[in-house]
Amino acid sequence: MRLRAPAVPLITVDPYFSVWSPADRLTDTDTTHWTGRPNTLIGYADIDGERYRFMGKDDSTPAMTQTRLDVTALSTAYTFRAAGIELTAIFTTPLLLSDPDILSRPVSYLEIVTSPTDGEEHAVTLTLLASEELCLDRKGQDALDTLNVTTSSGIPLARMGSKTQSILSREGDDIRIDWGYFYIGARDGETAFLSRDGMTFAVCTAQTDGDSLFLFAYDAVKDVEYFGQPLEAVWRQGGKDILTAIDEAEEQYFDLVSRCEAFSDRLFCQAVRAGGEKYAEILELAFRQSINAHKAVLDPNGELLWISKECYSNGCAATVDVSYPSIPLYLLYNPELVKGMMRPIITFAESDAWVYDFAPHDCGRYPKVNGERYAKNNPDGEMPVEECGNMLVMAAAVTVAESDASFAMEHIDLYETWVKYLIENGDDPANQLCTDDFAGHLAHNCNLSVKAIMGIAGLGIIHKYAGNDDKYEQYMAIARRMAEGWVKRAMNPDGSFRLAFDREGSWSMKYNMIWDKLFGTKLFPAWVFASENAANLRHRNAFGLPLDVRSAYTKSDWLIWTAALAPDREDFEAFAADLWNAYNVMPERVPLTDWYWTNSSNQVVYHRIPEDQHPVGFQNRTVIGGVFAKLLAYTGKMDAGL
């Protein structure tokens, strides 16, 4: 990868079990949680009795020289040299979207391969230290329960967790897990604990004959609270415990790594064909991040839930307008996960607790999925057109991806209620929020009106697949009529299209039009896309197209959605290169942000936590899965065949 990653993924299991390196070299700084808080891992190699460091900070120990860093969709590999030894450290989390058992299993790998560079034999011992920060919100928060354990197949492990074990007792954004147990081990290793730098470290040491495999695992015990009921992750089906899962993970390592390598190669090659090499590198870096912001659990009926956390954007769980931009990734590789995003919202909307005739915004604050939190008791904070359109488009997309309307038809009465709301309120939306809520309320929002049009068309598509041709024709006729009126009311004299119907000369991204292209509904004439694209090219800054005329900031997901509307590949690659360039020089060393300044490449920092002035900006958010929109378009998987 030529792209300099703002932060490099190391362990990417879920919103809590997440470790990153915010530097070009693994030895330059401490490893962190996605929030930027410390999540310290340190790695040493004792070569012929002399200690060197290949991971983390320790000024008392010399660092090995890093010679290479390569990031693929599912692995991160570093290469180092010192004292006649080349050491390659390969971090892999097997996030195979087609396999929910493996996807949800909270075990991540570090394979370390050593070989001589001088033709001589060397004795090499590897030592990994993992701090208490991995099982506490903050170091020193609670006394630790530490234990050396062994799996049934003989893998020694160091286990640590808080003594209090207040399972699922907290919710919020800038917090980390403080229940459950962290594990580290290696088959031929030895484990221990030590106190250093004011905290406890779990330690695993292994002598190596050239290849060693370390395992990191986290047993959260219970992962999500779902309408008052604690739920377990998918991997626990059949009563499986964490030690069994670790044994299975170790046994399956070489097979899983082979599958991961094959998947990553296919993704990269296909993405290059779809949008160029820079676009492909963005996808490689985005893949694990989007998944890392979810948790896969089973609901009380045994159905899959794919619960998102709205990372550094208030921590909401199962947020509709976070799911919506992320779905290109999941439609490509497992549409069942899109259903898993929708099920909590549907369950809540069909309950007596929801009293509105439009869709909810979210279902709680991670990890508590107990009902809407974002606009609780504040109707002005709702996003009625936004969320109705999102849910209807998502339902239609699943229908097309599976060529089957059965999932959507299970809740057709709910969708009919929502489409009625869009017909009555979506043609010229009132003063309300959309997913870009940081920009504030806006009346007559042209892009939001496009979403309403596509939501109505989406229900038509569902009925088409269900064999209800009359309903299909009814909703498509309404969508066509609205689209014709939209073009007349939204067009500027220069051929661009407005931010709001009543603001002549204004402009904005029309990212919601992507579904007209993907579904093949042809509600908007081809000249509209061409004219809008020409205007977008004029409005670009050094690091991308701003979201709209009001500010120089942009959203990465919407940038790629909008770029995917470009009639020519050359134009798409220009927009993708802007995003690549922004990430390549972005000063903030954080997991990919989706909200940044197009005139400087800086992440938008919208808040600083009062207690320590820790900066807060969008990062590690599942919405980055939206950058797969061009690849989704390239595959033709969403063509409804209308």
Write the topology of this structure.
Elements: E1 8-12, E2 18-21, E3 41-47, E4 50-55, E5 65-71, E6 75-82, E7 85-92, H1 100-104, E8 107-116, E9 124-131, E10 144-150, E11 156-162, E12 181-186, E13 190-196, E14 199-208, E15 211-219, E16 224-226, E17 229-231, H2 242-251, H3 253-275, H4 277-292, E18 294-298, E19 304-308, H5 320-333, H6 336-349, E20 368-369, H7 384-402, H8 406-409, H9 412-425, H10 446-465, H11 469-490, H12 514-519, H13 526-539, E21 553-555, H14 556-563, H15 569-585, E22 595-597, E23 607-609, E24 614-616, H16 629-635
Parallel strand pairs: 16-20
Antiparallel strand pairs: 1-2, 3-4, 3-9, 5-6, 6-7, 7-8, 8-15, 9-14, 10-11, 11-12, 12-15, 13-14, 16-17, 18-19, 21-22, 23-24
Strand order in space, largest sheet: 5-6-7-8-15-12-11-10
End-to-end gap? 40 Å
What's the pLDDT, averaged over the residues?
97
Helix vs. strand class? alpha+beta
